[in-house]
Each structure stands twice: as structure tokens, then as C-alpha cells.
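[User] Could I get a sequence and C-alpha cells?

[Assistant]
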Amino acid sequence: MYFNGTAQVNEKGHLQIGGVDTLDLVSQFGTPLYVYDVALIRERARGFKETFDKLGVKAQVAYASKAFSTIAMVQLVEEEGLSLDVVSAGELYTALAADFPVERIHFHGNNKSREELEMALDKGIGCIVVDNLYELQLLERVCGEKNQKANILLRVTPGIEAHTHDYILTGQEDSKFGFDLQNGQAEAALQNALNSQAFEVLGIHCHIGSQIFETTGFILAAQKIFEKLNDWKQRLSFEPAVLNLGGGFGIRYTNEDEPIAASQYVEDIITEVKNLAQHYDMKMPEIWIEPGRSLVGDAGTTLYKIGSRKEVPDVRKYLAVDGGMSDNIRPALYQAKYEAVLAGRPLEKANEVVSIAGKCCESGDMLIWDLPLPESDDNDVLAVFCTGAYGYSMANNYNRLPRPPVVFVENGEAQLVVRRETLDDLIRLDLSIQTKIKN
């Protein structure tokens, strides 16, 4: 079994994370439970940031908070000296509640509302990543009304398709995101932005996809962007101060995945951008990247209590757990794959193959198909690895299931950073119908 970060087997034979026995965590906080290995998050963050520092390249590493956004997580990002990528008023509000430095906040999104843009300007955030012409025009009006100037990046789609799941491709030409680099949309947006008194155009942004295990896509995207930048330099006298190549750096979920080190992504990107800037006789831009999943994905583990068992003779054995698509919708949404062990017996030899079912009233609520496990019962706890990205952030209350709590573990200590929702929380926003008064 592959263990991430500080995960190991302790002297009791139990799975331990951050120096804390996972069965002790279950006794204290119950199940389902999200557990985050803080030391691993710090290691991942430093792997990106220190490579830029070592190579003497000006950069910003902005955590993509859509992967997992809570006050405690934002505070951890600030401790590690990263910037922050937000995509909604809610994520921005969370960052502000965590006292995150506003100058290091970048606001993304393909349909920012007037209210969100006003909030961003009022709070003085560092950069708005403009996604389309509608937004460019709306932001210009809002800046005019407030007599403010906005720092912006223009998001472009360079036409590069990453080798990943179709649902999470974002850099190809047919995308809901960004200005197309090839058909003139990006140039028209750039001309409008440069001619406006409302904007300081910092540079260009792109994002080519997710779960990428090589640097080829980033290199090709940089090449396409620099070809266009060279043209814009000659005709529009524009050179970017910033080139943001997005995120999408892959992690290991199962033995089918072969990610590369954070430092390798950074080194290859820096090398290519330096070569391109020199080739086109352009100033070396500041490089921004946006890791999300690669910072928190394999740092998260979800603990479940095993419940019912069902066997269909000569077909399949099902084990049900007390969570499912309400706390991890990725298997249903993306057919995502995971590995898991019994937390109390992680090294015991498997003697059966089971499929892990969630408790939601949906036949598609399956967390793992065909998982080798030792024989288990309802006294056992299942630990599902690499659930740190898009688990809590996409959690929902389907079937009116309360969302699980979140615990940070580090150096033998556990800290509750999100409490478990209660049944009262589920109805807190509900209103009763008004009884009509009969005449």
C-alpha cells in the first residue's frame, strides 16, 4: 500500500497521520471525517515556491482555493507565503475572514457578477483575471463609477488540450473559459483594455486542464502565447509584466498515476519562458502558477464507518459506508478512482474484493469499485486516500446528509477546523409556509 506524507502504521498496527492514530480521531470526531496532513501541504507548497526562489525568478504561487477553501486553509496558505486564487464572492469572503493579504488575491471566474466585481474593487484585491468581453465591459463601467483602476490579466485559450478527463479540459478552443487566442478575440480584448483608463493590463493567463503528468502542455501553451505576444509587441507595443500558466499539476490517486515533482514542473516552465523571452527579445515576465489539487489532494484522507454488506452471488460484494457522493462526488461526476485500507488493519492481507457503496439514494453513489480488503464488519473504519481536493469543497446535503467535519493533523496534534453540520444546520435557512387566514 502506498502511503502519502506522514501517513504510516503505528505500533498498534493502526493507520496514523500527522502523528495521530486515525481510530483515535474517529473516537473523538466521528465519521465521516476529513483529515488533512498539514506537513504534506507545507511540503507541497514549498516544493513550488522554493524552486522559483532557487532559480532567481520573480513569481507568485497562488493556491487555487476552489480545491479546498476554509478559513484555516487560507491561513495555512498565508503562513507559507503563497498568493490566493478565488472564483466567487464566497471564496473571497473566506479569504477576507482569514485576514489574507488582499494584494495577493487573484479573482477568477467566467461569470463574475457586478456585486462580485464591486466587492473585489472595494477590498482592493491584487488582480482580476478577466474572462470575456462582457466582463471586460462590465468591469470598465464599475471602475468608472468608483473612479478606480483595476489590475487585470486577460485569460486566453491557447488551443492546447491536456491529456486528462474531457470534463476538466479548459485550454482547448471550444471552452467556456477565456478569449480565444487564434480567432482574434484575445487581440480585440487586449486592444480594448489597453485603450481604457480603467485598467492596468498586467499580462496574460491560461489554464490548459487538470491532472497533468507532464510539462509538454505547459511548454506548448507558452510557445503559442509568446508567438502572439511577439506580434502584439510589434503592433500594439505590449509586453506582459506577468505570464500566468495556471495549474492542473497532477497527483497520485492510484498506481495508474505517475506524477512528477513540483520542482520539475517549475524548472521546465522557467526554462521555456526564459528561452522564449530571449528568442523574441522580450523582457522576462513574472511567472504565476495556480496549484490547487497538487497542494491538498493527497494530503486529505476521508474516514468512514463500514455499515451494511450485500453479496450478489457470482457477481459482486458491496460494502456500504456512512458517507458517499454527499462528501465525495468525484467518483459519480468524473469516474474518479481511489485507494483505501481498513484504518485499524492497513497492512493485513486482503482476502476478498468488495465495492464501496455510499449511503445516498442513488445507484451511482459508488466510491470505489473492486477494492481488495481483508474481511471486515461494522466495527471497522475505512480510510480513503487522496480526498483532499474537491471533496469538502464539492460536498452537498443530498438526502439531507450533514456535511462532515474537517480536522488538521500535525506533529501529533489534531485541530478541528470545520465542525460537523448538525440536523439543525440543515433546516436553519428553511422557512415555513404562511398559513392563510380564512374569512
